[in-house]
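User: Run a structure prediction on this.
Assistant: Running it now.
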Amino acid sequence: MAEGPTQLMERVLDQRVTLVLKDAREISGRLVGIDEHMNLVLEDADEKAAEVTRHLGRLVLRGSNVVTLHAPQGPTAKSR
């Protein structure tokens, strides 16, 4: 049976990810939480907009604002 988006996202928990938001900002940080609405919690987050980068620390993002998520390490093996 195919995995849903939430299950795939749970497999990249505790990894560093890069998100692109609807307003073209890029947010990078360690994914530490996700809920059923695809809201995300990032730790040690940094925001890049145009030529400016700033450190944000812990960040909660509404899932509907996320366009793409890139996890360089890829999903970890599914544990049962």
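The CA atoms of residues 38 and 64 lie 8 Å apart.
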